[in-house]
Structure formats: structure tokens, C-alpha cells
Write a structure and sequence with these properties.
- This protein has 43 residues and is mostly helical.
- The chain has one domain.
- The protein is 91% helix and 0% strand.
- Helix 1 packs across helix 2.
- The chain is rod-shaped, with a radius of gyration of 16 Å.
- Keywords: Membrane, Transmembrane, Transmembrane helix.
Length: 43
């Protein structure tokens, strides 16, 4: 596996992790009620 291949793989993996993180955040807001989550985040 060359370094270029590894760089492409790493980039794709980071993008996937970011997408998963956003999906989790959005689903928590929808399921937990936006107001509660925002109150926790912003104090």
C-alpha cells in the first residue's frame, strides 16, 4: 500500500467519521428534544 493510497483512505475515513458524528448529534437533538439539548450545551 503506497502512501498515496493511505492518504486517500485516511481522507475517506475522516469524512465518514464526520458524517456519523453529525448524524448522531442531529438524532440526539430530534430524539431528546431540541430545547433540552440546547440548554445543556449553552448552559
Amino acid at each position: 500500500m503506497s502512501e498515496d493510497e493511505y492518504a486517500d483512505y485516511n481522507e475517506a475515513r475522516q469524512r465518514r467519521v464526520k458524517i456519523v458524528a453529525w448524524v448522531v448529534i442531529v438524532s440526539l437533538i430530534l430524539v431528546g428534544g431540541g430545547a433540552t439539548v440546547l440548554a445543556l450545551i449553552f448552559g
